[in-house]
């Protein structure tokens, strides 16, 4: 092996190392970008979940008011019994029609 072959091998190894360094830098930037994108998505999802929770509690309060209006009336006794029966059966989401 001549000195020229050694120099060529050294240049080749140096080029491979430099190429790997460049590729690892690109990969790190890509990971940082994906991490930032994930943080933004998670923040948006958390905000949307909070909005849904607020809306859900508002709807629950409205249903309680409606149930109180119906059951507080003298003629709503039958409806009050139906509501309680649905709660006991676990079918509060179903609507019964007569």
Keywords, please?
0% strand; rod-shaped; mainly alpha; 98 residues
The arrangement of helices and strands along the chain is HH
Overall pLDDT: 85
Structurally, the number of domains stands at: 1
Give the terminus-to-terminus CA distance.
99 Å
Structural class: mainly alpha
Total beta strand runs: 0
Oligomer: single chain
Helix content: over 70%
Number of helices: 2
Please summarize the sheet with the most strands: none
What are the low-pLDDT stretches, counting only 5+ consecutive residues below 50?
none
**Radius of gyration over C-alpha positions, nearest whole angstrom:** 34 Å
Shape: rod-shaped
- Taken as a percent bin, the fraction of beta residues is under 5%
Report what the structure shows:
The protein is mainly α and 98 residues long. 85% of the residues lie in helices and 0% in strands. The termini are far apart. The chain crosses the membrane at residues 6-27.
Compact description:
By secondary structure, the protein is an all-alpha fold. It contains 2 helices and no strands.
């Amino acid at each position: 092996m001549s000195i020229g072959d050694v120099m060529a091998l050294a240049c080749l190894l140096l080029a491979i190392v430099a190429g790997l360094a460049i590729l690892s830098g690109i990969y790190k930037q890509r990971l940082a970008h994906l991490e930032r994108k994930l943080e933004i998505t998670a923040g948006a999802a958390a905000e949307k979940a909070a909005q849904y929770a607020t809306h859900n509690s508002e709807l629950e309060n409205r249903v309680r008011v409606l149930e109180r209006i119906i059951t507080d009336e003298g003629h709503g006794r039958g409806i009050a019994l139906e509501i309680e029966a649905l709660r006991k059966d676990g079918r509060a989401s179903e609507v019964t029609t007569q």
